[in-house]
Amino acid sequence: MPRVRSGPTVALIAALIVYAALLATLAATAGLGVAGWVTGALFGFCLYGLLNGAKPLGPADGVTMMRAALVGCVAALVADAFTRPVPTGLIVAITVVALVLDAVDGRVARRTGTSSDFGARFDMEVDAFLILVLSVDVARALGAWVLAIGAMRYAYAVAGWALPWLRGGVPPRYWRKVVAAVQGIVLTVAASGLLPTSVTLVAVAVALALLAESFGRDVAWQWLFRNGVHVAGAAQRPEPVKQLNKAGTV
Fold first, then answer.
1. Least confident stretch, 110-114, 126-130, 153-157, 191-195
2. Between these two residues, 156 and 119, which has the higher pLDDT value?
3. CA dihedral 138, 148, 215, 101 (to 10 degrees)
4. Which of 214, 67, 61 is nearest to 126 (CA)?
5. pLDDT tens across 48-90, in order?
6. Got the DSSP string for the chain?
7. Short-list 205, 241, 245, 207, CA closest to 221
8. Contact 46/16 with Cβ under 8 angstroms?
């Protein structure tokens, strides 16, 4: 009889309790409307679906779970902002903490020797969703085109279902992490409203261009090596590297 693994269940329950407590704190202080509660609840269900059945979670996963809880709070506040005034400073403050923790979980995983494919994917999904939420918030002021930043990773994933060659590995590239960090920072600054609109527009447009270049380079590489050999016959395809990276490509 297979042994029942209780580790993920205990950790997951603890994470959901913390998340519920954070939402309740928001409701008691800044207030949460129907849109906020519905969004927060849906995020909690998605978090449960992502983590349920996972292998025993390590210390770095615990940091990522805390970050996920903060991202869920940001999503709830942004959803509420469509129906009532929401303190911009609160959204920015929670986002900044989540971004800082993004630099912590990787270090914890390396120091404790608990790095895993699941942990990398979990980290990536939290990053991608935060960028999506921030793009929705910023799009309210700058226009729908900003949504392309948050939607690009998901569009890439959907395209991979239809085009198998997009599911191949890509070589490691540090530039992806830089580009992803730029998205989070630029969107957070844009959401704060601290800069003039013209400056914000330029900054967000540059961030979008960098993201498109990063994805575009990976797509081009996967197309050139889609049959295992460079189309020009100049080089044998290297062993694929399944790297879960900050730009969202796999």
1. 110-114
2. 156
3. 30
4. 67
5. 888 877 666 778 888 888 999 999 999 999 999 999 999 999 9
6. -PPP--HHHHHHHHHHHHHHHHHHHHHHHT---HHHHHHHHHHHHHHHHHHTTPPPP-HHHHHHHHHHHHHHHHHHHHHHTTTS---HHHHHHHHHHHHHHHHHHHHHHHHHT---HHHHHHHHHHHHHHHHHHHHHHHHHH-GGGHHHHHHHHHHHHHHHH-GGGGS-----HHHHHHHHHHHHHHHHHHHT-S-HHHHHHHHHHHHHHHHHHHHHHHHHHHHTTTSB-TTSSSBPPPP-----TTS--
7. 241
8. no
217: tokens are 């380079």
Residue 136, both tokens: 């929705």
